[in-house]
Amino acid sequence: ARDAARDAARDAARDAARDAARYTARYTARYTARLGSRNKSNKVRNS
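RE: above sequence
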């Protein structure tokens, strides 16, 4: 039973880490795209 609990905890941790990585990647990509477009428009306006 203790081994099963340890395996379950490890699986849960792995799933949580995978979900966090996927969410972080998606959020970072969206934020980077928005930041890049804003920097581009600023560059155009300044020049």
